[in-house]
Amino acid sequence: MYIIRQKISKLIFSFVCLASLVACETTNQVSTPRNSEVVEVAILMPMSGPQSALGQQYNKLIKMGLEDGIKTPVKITSYDGAEERQVLNAMGKIIAKNTKIILGPINSPLTSLISEQAKRHGIILLTLSNNPALADDKLFVFGHAPLKQLDTIINRLLDNDYKNLIALLPAGNHSHNVTKIIQNMTIQKNGTLVRAEYYSDTPESIDKSVNLVSDAADNINEMEDSALKPVVYIADDSTSLNLLFGSINKYNLDKKAIIAGDNRIDIDYPQTIDLIFTGSLNMLNSNVPARAKDLGVSHMTFMHVMAYDLGRMTAEYIGEKYSSQKFLSRLNSGEAFVGISGNISFTDSIAQRQYDIIKREEGVYSTLKSD
C-alpha cells in the first residue's frame, strides 16, 4: 500500500511540474509589512519562441527593479507574452487573480490585443512598446524611440560646429531612412553629409567599409581648415559592432574622427575606442549591470536598463499602500523618475526621456555639459 501511495505521489508531482513548464508562468511573493493587502502585479514578456532568451532576461530585470523598490507586499506573476494565444490565455488568469498592474507586453499588436480587457477590469498597463497611438488614461507607453536619440546627438554635434558627417551603417531600408534624416538635419544647420557607407554582416564587408570611411576622414582632415574632426555615425547590434570596432581600431578611425551613435555603441570591446553616445551615466554608476551578470545578462542594452527602470518605478509609485488613484497620479504628475536609463516622465501617458550625451575617452566616461 505504501509503495502504491509513493508511486501516486510521484505521478502527481511530475504532472504538476509538467503543467508549470507548459504554462511558462512563475510567481514570486515579495514579503514586506504584514497586515497589508497584497498587490498583484503581472509581467508579460516573451518566455518562449524566438525572443524567449531576451524576454526572460527582461523579466528578471523587471523583477529586480520591483524587489529593489517595493515597500508593500506584492505578488509578481510572470506570464508568457510571446504570441496572441499565450497573451490571451495569460489575460484570463490575470483578470481572475484581480491583478492591479501589467508590465508589458513588448510590442504594439499584443499590447493592443489586451488593452480593452485591461481597461474594463481596471488594470493599469505599462507597455514596453514605443507606439504613442496606444496611450490611454490607464495605458502608459514606456518604450523609447531610438530616432529621438539620433536627433539629440546629431543636433548637439551640429550645434557645436561639427559640420562634416559620415554615416557608417548596416545595409538595409532602415539605414537608408536614418541617412535621409541625418542629411536633412545637416542641411538645416549648414552641415554636410560627406558620405554614406553601408556594409553587409561579414568581416570582409565591414573592414572594407571602415577602410573607405577612414580614407574619407583623412581627406576631410587634410582639406578642412577647422580643427574639428569629422563625425562618423554608427548604429548596429553588438555582434556587428564588435567586428566594426575591430576595424575602427585597425585604422585608428576614432583618432581621425568622432565616433558617435546611440546607447547601443557602448559595448564591451577589449580595445579602448573613444566614443560619444546618448544614454545615462546613472547606469554606469549603479550596481545593476554587475548584478545582472549574476542573472545571466552579459551585456546590458538600453532595453535591459529600461526593464529594470520599469520595475523600480512601478514599485516606488505603488508606495507603502497601493491605491490606483494615487498610482495614476504619480504617473501623470510630470515629475521625473530618476532611473538608471535617465530621467523619465509622462506626457499624455507617453514616456518622455531626457538623454545625456556621454563621452568615453581612454575608457573614462563623462557627461558633456550643455552649452
Topology at a glance:
Blueprint: H1 2-23, E1 26-30, E2 39-45, H2 52-69, E3 74-80, H3 84-96, E4 101-103, H4 108-120, E5 124-127, E6 139-141, H5 146-159, E7 164-170, H6 173-188, E8 192-199, H7 203-223, E9 231-234, H8 238-250, H9 253-256, E10 258-261, E11 275-279, H10 281-284, H11 288-294, H12 302-318, H13 324-332, E12 337-339, E13 342-347, E14 350-354, E15 356-361, E16 364-367
Parallel strand pairs: 2-3, 2-4, 4-5, 5-6, 7-8, 7-9, 9-10, 10-11
Antiparallel strand pairs: 1-3, 11-15, 12-13, 13-14, 15-16
Helix pairs in contact: 2-12, 3-4, 5-6, 7-8
What does this structure look like?
This protein is of the alpha/beta class. The protein folds into two domains: 20-143 and 289-354, 3-Layer(aba) Sandwich (Rossmann fold), CATH 3.40.50; 147-280 and 356-367, Response regulator (Rossmann fold, 3-Layer(aba) Sandwich). The chain has 13 helices and 16 strands. The strands form three sheets. Strands 8-7-9-10-11-15-16 form a seven-stranded mixed β-sheet, sandwiched between helices. It has a six-stranded mixed β-sheet with strand order 1-3-2-4-5-6, with helices on both faces. A hairpin with a 2-residue loop joins strand 12 (337-339) and strand 13 (342-347). Helix 3 runs parallel beside helix 4 and helix 5 runs parallel beside helix 6 (173-188). The protein is elongated, with a radius of gyration of 24 Å. The model is unreliable at 1-23 (pLDDT under 50).
* Count of individual domains: 2
Radius of gyration: 24 Å
Structural class, by secondary structure, is alpha/beta
Shape, principal axes of CA atoms: elongated
Main sheet attributes: strand count, strand direction, barrel closure: 7 strands, mixed
Number of helices: 13
Helix content: 40-55%
